[in-house]
């Protein structure tokens, strides 16, 4: 299929990098303008310096070949003033890329280097620092493939599919690791927002936040054959943050995944039914549902907390509303063939809202062990109706403000 599309490409734009480390953004933008339809854009085997924001949307049938590195500048003052907002959780981006029938190939070594250490040291763990840019926003993009790319030291979230559909992300390596005492907060591996039919396959994510997060109105999301290290795991949400706004998550499947020293394997985080503060770190009062969620064939190694967790009391600040007030309903979660080791019981903590109890959670072949070799057996539940394959044990789930699905 790639061959059939390539023969129709009428033009090639090869971008020549500057020789003195000057800003290559003007040349990059010119190439995307000249080759925005039925064309090929080539980054040669050199380093390109990206010192200013890029908006390269509206592409149609374009191959993008990255043979070495895009290196973002460390001018924090500039990026905070110029990053491109996209209207959700006050988030902004260093690069908007979008269109139809895009094939972005890094061949296993094409790298987007966000120079993230300067950001980790600048924000010092502060959550959702205003205008801190994401590395890449895949904007209004359809029927496209991103493959063989490497993302290192992302500035914030690594890549977000926004208002997009029918996308394959395959053979992508992401590593955002701090070399100082400052954490890599908000370095999500990938996020989906207002997007449908997104497939993440053969992903490797090493980071300090969500490995992959499905956010508002994400449907038919598939995550397969991947390895997640040191982050928080596969997240549904956060969601329900906007007062009076209806949002959904539906048909989310993660299977054939290895988790190494992540906090959780799969977890859900919704905001309370009471708005306390404003996004990005406050909010609540949204409603809707998450349903048809499948976690299957997980191998977990030394997880730092429960493999599965659900909190309807999300907050990214010290303020929190009534944890039993959320009207966002979670139902039909299936957990199958889970094995490996965890640091402590319980296997799961499900803190569902009394105002909209969770429904229909099912497990099959869950076998995880504690460090001493004994089988973990605890299932903590609050306001969960309908369980198959497990019994809630030892009292209710912990209830309190959470940014990570627990207390």
TrEMBL record:
One MF annotation (Gene Ontology) recorded for this entry: polygalacturonase activity
GO biological process, alphabetically ordered: carbohydrate metabolic process; cell wall organization
Subcellular location per the Swiss-Prot or TrEMBL entry: Secreted
GO CC entries: extracellular region
UniProt keyword Hydrolase present: yes
Swiss-Prot/TrEMBL keywords: Cell wall biogenesis/degradation, Glycoprotein, Glycosidase, Hydrolase, Secreted, Signal
InterPro entries tied to this protein: Glyco_hydro_28, Pectin_lyas_fold, Pectin_lyase_fold/virulence
Origin: domain of life: Eukaryota
Keyword Secreted: yes
Gene3D superfamilies the UniProt entry points to: Single-stranded right-handed beta-helix, Pectin lyase-like (2.160.20.10)
PANTHER family named in the record: PTHR31736, PUTATIVE (AFU_ORTHOLOGUE AFUA_7G06410)-RELATED (PTHR31736:SF8)
Membership in a protein family: Belongs to the glycosyl hydrolase 28 family.
Name listed for the protein in its UniProt record: Glycoside hydrolase family 28 protein
């Amino acid at each position: 299929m790639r061959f059939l599309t390539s023969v129709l490409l009428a033009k090639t734009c090869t971008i020549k990098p500057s020789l003195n480390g000057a800003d290559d953004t003007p040349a990059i933008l010119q190439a995307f303008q000249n080759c925005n339809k039925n064309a090929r854009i080539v980054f040669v085997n050199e380093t390109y310096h990206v010192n200013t924001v890029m908006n390269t949307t509206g592409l149609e049938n374009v191959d993008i070949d990255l043979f070495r590195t895009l290196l973002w500048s460390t001018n924090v003052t500039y990026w905070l003033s110029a990053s491109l907002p996209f209207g959700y959780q006050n988030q902004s981006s260093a690069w908007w890329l979008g269109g139809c029938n895009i094939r972005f190939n890094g061949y296993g070594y094409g790298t987007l280097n966000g120079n993230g250490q300067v950001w980790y040291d600048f924000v010092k763990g502060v959550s959702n620092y205003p205008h801190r840019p994401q590395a890449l926003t895949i904007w209004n993009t359809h029927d496209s493939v991103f493959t063989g790319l490497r993302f290192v030291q992302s500035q914030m979230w690594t890549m977000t599919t926004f208002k997009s559909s029918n996308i394959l992300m395959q053979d992508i390596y992401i590593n955002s690791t701090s070399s100082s005492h400052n954490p890599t907060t908000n370095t999500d591996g990938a996020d989906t927002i207002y997007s449908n039919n997104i497939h993440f396959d053969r992903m490797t994510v090493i980071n300090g936040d969500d490995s992959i997060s499905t956010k508002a109105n994400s449907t038919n999301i598939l995550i397969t054959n991947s390895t997640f290290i040191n982050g928080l795991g596969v997240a549904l949400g956060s969601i329900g943050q906007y007062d009076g706004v209806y949002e959904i998550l539906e048909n989310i499947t993660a299977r054939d995944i290895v988790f190494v020293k992540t906090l959780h394997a799969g977890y859900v985080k919704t905001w309370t039914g009471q708005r306390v503060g404003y996004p990005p770190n406050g909010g609540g009062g949204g409603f809707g549902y998450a349903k048809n969620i499948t976690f299957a064939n997980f191998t977990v190694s030394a997880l730092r907390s429960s493999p599965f967790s659900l909190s309807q009391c999300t907050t990214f600040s010290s303020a929190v509303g009534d944890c039993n007030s959320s009207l966002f309903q979670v139902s039909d979660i299936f957990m199958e063939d889970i094995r490996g080791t965890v640091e402590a019981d319980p296997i799961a903590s499900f803190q569902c809202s009394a105002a909209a109890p969770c429904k229909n959670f099912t497990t099959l072949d869950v076998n995880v062990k504690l460090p001493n070799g004994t089988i973990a057996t605890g299932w903590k539940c609050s306001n969960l109706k309908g369980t198959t394959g497990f019994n809630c044990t030892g009292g209710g789930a912990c209830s309190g403000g959470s940014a990570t699905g627990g207390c």
